[in-house]
User: What shape does this take?
Amino acid sequence: MTDIKDINIDLRDNGHITDDQVVEFEKTYGAHHYGRLKMVVRHAEGCWLTGVDGTKHFDCLAAYSAANPGHHHPTIVKGLVDALQGNYGSVISNVVYTDTLGVFLKKAATIPPQLAPRFGNNGNKVLPKNGGVESVETAIKMARYYGYKAKGIADGKQEIIVFNNNFHGRMITVVSFSSSHKYKEGFGPITPGFVSVDYGELEAVKNAINENTCGILVEPMQGEGGMYQPPDGFLKGLRDIADKNDLLLLFDEIQVGLGRTGKMFCFEHENVIPDGLILGKAISGGLVPLSVFITNSQLMDIAFQPGKDGSTYGGYPLACVAGIVALDVIISEKLAERSAKMGKILKAKIEDIAGRSAYVKEVRGRGLFIGIEVNNGDAMVYCKKLLDLGVLANDSHGHTIRISPPLVINEQEIDYLTERLEKVLVD
Ligand SMILES: Cc1ncc(COP(=O)(O)O)c(C=O)c1O
Assistant: This one.
């Protein structure tokens, strides 16, 4: 067999491809489904992104929370390298067991509290997938099956309540209930079975319920929808409605979970326990794709028996190793507490800037999930200026500058960021 030391693969040919060529290659050979900022990243570490000439940008996006532990966290990288060098990273046929999956499932099931406690203290079970949207669909399947099997709703008639300005991903079923016309125009037929009401409006939720309703799918804070925190008591109100009407309450914490808002899970701010929890992004530390749907064991067993779901790479060994180590890092480095502490410092500085700015309408958010809504409704104007000053940020819902850096941000980095926000928003 070839010795690994004899294999020489230059994957990037960094010295020869210019930034302009990189952009050109993508224009020519890639789908244009993202409008990108003109910046080519060659290297990522901690909170920093570096270009070919060594230019550094502070990463205020953290890949929408995927890089919560910071880019290339050394412990997670080591876990992955060890797995690859130890020959236990490869995808294995799903007809057999792997030790990595077993260990990961136990960890992912036991970190959240008992979900859906009204179904008993059975522990949680986990169904792993690759990307967030896949796990959202798993949660939708769970609620529909529960409606069909446990509530006797005719198959095909199940309905799930969702919220205006939601964001749960981009596949057909999920864009079917998006409020954004652009996401679904021309991609019909869209998937039926969803009723969308205003975020934060409990009366609207009550009015949307009928005999076919089987679940409520909600982001405990909206990320792409403009970084909104729901009114106090909203999640608790949803919990009451779900209990009274026997609906599954599903929380999508793909963006706001795993420390982002200053708690391990965003639902902990209101002390409300969902029936199903969807996690992705940071669960693998930003290095390989992994997502999960977690629910009460009893519910999981009702819906998912052999043949009812599956994914070749969902829960494959390399992803599981990343998941095991990333969850350890998030807990052992107390990243949720760090997010609360650093978020408080950062938000206070941003509020001070906002108080002296003619351009800021509102500052909102929790932990290191902070939105700066601008008066002119066009946050990208400011994000482009920030890019010129060495900060990568983008908008949420057009009108809000998204401030969601890796949770390992330190006080010097907060100063770096706020000095530049000051330049863009005040000077
Ligand atoms: C709340 C929420 N749900 C689902 C998704 C989709 O995740 P993915 O892009 O991994 O499919 C995202 C992505 O930003 C998200 O923020």
